[in-house]
Amino acid sequence: MTASTVTQYRPAQRPGRDGFAQLLRAEWTKFRTVRAWVIGLVIAVLVMIGVGLFGASAGGSSCQAVSGGPVRTGGACAPTFPAGPGGEPVTDSFYFVRQPLAGNGSITVRISSLTGLLPPANPGPVATDTRPGLVPWAKAGIIIKESTRPGSAYAAMMVTADHGVRLQNDFTGDTKGQPGAVTTTSPRWLRLTRSGDTVTGFDSADGTHWTQVGTVHLSGLATTVQAGLFATSPEYSVISQNFGGGGGGSILPSQATAVFDHVGRSGTWPASAWSGGYIGAAGGSGIGKYHQASGRFTVTGSGDIAPIVAGSGNSGDPGKTITDHLVGTFAGLIAVIVVATLFITAEYRRDLIRTTLTATPRRGRVLAAKAIVISSVTFVAGLVAAAAGVIIGAQVSHARGSLVFPVSWLTEVRVIAGTAALVAVAAVLALALGTVLRRSAAAVTIVIVAIVLPYILGVASILPVGASEWLLRITPAAAFAIQQAAVQYPQVNALYTPTSGYFPLAPWAGLAVLCGYAALALILATIMLRRRDV
Amino acid sequence: MEATIEVSGLRKKFGPHLALNGMTFTVEPGQVTGFVGPNGAGKSTTMRVVLGLDAADEGTALVGGQPYASLRHPLSHVGALLDAAALQPSRSARNHLLWLAHSQGLTARRVDAVIEQAGLESVVRRKAGGFSLGMRQRLGIAAAMLGDPPVLMMDEPFNGMDPEGIVWMRGFLRSLAGQGRAVLVSSHLMSELQDTADHLVVVGRGKVIADTSVRELLSAASRDRITVRTTTRSEAMTVLAHAGATVAATGRDTLTISGLPADRVVALLGESAVPFSEVSAHHASLEEAYMELTKDEVEFRAAAAEDTTEEAAR
To answer: Do the Cβ atoms of A276 and A127 come closer than 8 Å?
Structure first.
């Protein structure tokens, strides 16, 4: 070495340069130059997609459309369903006593009775008879509907078995009216008024004093619509909730019968008489009838006017959502956790951390740079895996003849990006814990026990539902809620359990729980990294 | 920035063990300062405190007048080689230097320059995990040189080096000092620093025992001593001891005498007809000087003796 190469007292700093970008670059160089870590992430991606495909190809390949009917397989089995105005799959089957209504107008009725029939209590080899009774969401009332096409827009005022008077519209809308059950001594008066695209619902106990329940907008509603009386009753499911939280048992049709009188109309009703008919025969056997005598209508129907709930097991349920194509997340997460932990613990193991902190004495910044690098690379890995899983999974499911519950693109983006975020935040948690513990095995074990284990216990029919839900509320595994594609509707009775794809927390709230854990761990790691000798 | 390391009154306890007990010294530019003491004397701890890796309970450590933690691109101020084995085994040597360079805003060109400087061109694409300790030391040197720093600090850089490597390392350290840099080199073997160090900071039990230039130390240790080369060693010992000298057998045919001037030794041996081939003023080795210096330190002597044995075994 010659003296000329030495710049003895040259100013070492570039003035004004913050240096954090350089630190990020250094940590990125560190990450990409250890082949095992890069391979580890590739494995994580492949495992996520692979296990997800296993989920996609499982199940859904045979079905029985009608009890006692032929067992079908493959594409023939794919359930068909109408789509509601919002694009969501819906059940739209009910008995409809209707007349066209041209332009604005209103319809008013009094309902004095809602009764029904339930399937046999003990469905078994010895067939017993049906018995009187109502399912909680048995409903009857008045409806203004775009057309008789299943899935078309509507607004309805109804009485229900257990949920009082409701104003419902377009399958997902549900507004509460007067509470209580309807009886001959306590009848309910209902009114729907159409004005352009707006339909307003009223209820009353006496036909004199009216209360507005709500107003709904049915955009682009045709001038002439179908209006009239309806009755329907969702399937009766003997939900034998076993210890695993899995719903078992039989799902059989029920029916509801309502008695209407004081039918009043205003506006232009061009038809001369009422006509009755069953709408949406696909939703079961199409039970329904009506009887009219001296202003009294007795209408019986079976089915439901409601969104289809994925994973409910009800007829028409496609059974699968894009979430099912992401079941490999937990497995890929294990590899991600190992890589993220090693990103810091490998430095401790070799005392390389000393070199790192000699190069950058500001320790908090080192940890921040590491967190940003590891979360970025794992986010990208998660994004690739989730997007590929959803796309390939849809094709595999289609080929297998099982239909994937359609969701809006917004939901799809949330699930895919959310999965990537889940992976990235879990990586930060692992990094932080690795910093605190300085031991690979201990940190990896704790993070897996904190995230992966509660998830598996929560969704895999091992614990009682209550315990599963608590696990998925308070542990970092709550973040898996971000993957929920199915929507829970209060106006549909179903088994909303983690096993069937329903998490106790809202998607972003669940992710926030994991973020909270990661933030706490990162704060602890920063404090300890700053304080400790290395 | 001034090329100095100033350590003042460092105290540090690891549990009940007092690792540093008032460590104080200054490393000046333009010379190689040997940092010597037995294992456990506090050399590595002092270096970690200087680099801000360990926090001292008391005292200050400054590099060029500034605490290390306040340096923004520290590798341009201090180049340190603490532990040559501190590498990610699966990362290539070049990539190891590359991330370090990136952390200081330096480019790959600078990486290639220090690779050449350390003589690592042929192996630099290989995984660092496969490196011998000597090669790792060279990689550590390359890393320390990245920022072209005015201050260098190396912990046991001769460890694991082959003789050729030791010669290279000595020349390298001397050239760094020759360029006006401050170089602090620790060793538990005084012999390693022979012909390398200009100045010595001798430490034991966490504090400085001697802070002296090598020249002064050697002349102090050589003073009043005479080396006699003779084939009849025992007879010569008897004669000289009888005359009141302190005699030590330092080789198969050499004796070291103190307490008698050279002319008196020649006369005595002549009178007694003891043959001898040489009488000369003694030139103490650095190691002897070290032994002399630390003879009062009990802990030292045991440790030093061990080290000598170790060295003899090499």
So the answer is: no
